Amino acid sequence: MMNTLPVCAALAVLLLPTGIPTQDAGTVQEVVWDQADLEALAKRIEADIEQLRGQPFREPVAVRVAGREELIDYMKRRTEETDPPEKIAADERVAKMLALIPPEMDLMATAYRLLEDQVAGFYDPPSKTFFLMETMPKGFAGPIVAHELVHALDDQLYDLDTTMNELADHSDRLQAYRFVVEGSGTAGGNLWTMQHMDEIDLSGYQEMMDAQQASMAEAPAALWKPLLAAYLQGAAFLTRSEGVLAGQTAAASTEDIARAFRERPLSTEQVLHPRKYWDPDQRDDPQEVTLELGELPDGWELQRRDTLGELGLALATTPPAERTGLDLSNPMALLAIAYTNTAAEGWDGDSLVLLGKGGASWLRLVTVWDSERDAGEFYAVMQGLLPSLEQACETLGEASEERRARSGAELAYGARRDVVELTLWAGVERRDLRGLGTAVSYRVE
Fold first, then answer.
1. What is the pTM of this model?
2. Contacts with 224 (C-beta within 8 Å, 6 or more apart), sequence order
């Protein structure tokens, strides 16, 4: 579990009283960490976390100071352990066909660059070890250590990696679980911070924000928004708060945290709208949408099945002009970010398949909605976005060697008016288009 600095730093600023002096942005704070210093700090904060949660650590948490190269090695190793290259390539293709990222972008390289600039510390479940970046200012390390030690406690109690691996092929449920994991860390870290205001020194804070602004501003919203949502909306969810700000100042109960880990939310919809999980009268579990494959044209194969969920569809239905980078110049703006929209609300389930043959791709997304009105709102927005989807697919299709290749996008209602289907294709031979369309059917349960 990685702790990204802008989120935690911004929250600390919001929690601190106004008027606390900080150094000018040009002031460089010398950072000198050694193993003994970190172990002493972690031991003290471990005891604090046990009191806050009312749950003891089953064993001490190993802690280490880490450098930039160690972070890069960790990120690559974890990716290799959890996501095979073909899955990464398929996810990148889906993102490009949905116009969530530019056609020329290397998704993983961009993600690595983003995290290299943002990560202040990380907890590694396989080794049960917390790493603090060696450049982390000592006066601001406390909230980071508290956040990561909450992850360590949760891992000892709920075995985080096992669940992550179980959900690896279902993006929506995996993201919902990440909301719980990072929300727990944020809630615990915030509570610790509020109780230890006098220990926090924000010297060098502005310098850190300036250094990280560039990478956050350049990254697509499809990368930074789910990351940020996991911290802020996750904490709100665990405190049963509809508003993100309330979720940063309220205390999540140990009982609610335990329930969220043991009875995982089934969708990002339930986390974005906490009442749809916590309130028995408004509980809204998603419908299962199953895409079934018949006989595919020669050479075509299944490359990816997935579910986007409300969070994913909110990203897809955001107009391209509004998919701007994150501005850290105003920390309060973090709390005003919307993670859903009218077009994505009312989601009740979805499923997609990505089929491929050489450099050609064909994608079908089937969505089901709470009502015909919700389906209509989604349809109307996607209809307006079809030109940008067609352009994205045409750009991708230009790499095809087949002269008769076609690229395009099509939107239609399903057999029911609460079902909307989106089909995208890039570089597909004309003779294969019809066969692909008839080979894929769906059922809603």
1. 0.90
2. 114, 216, 325, 326
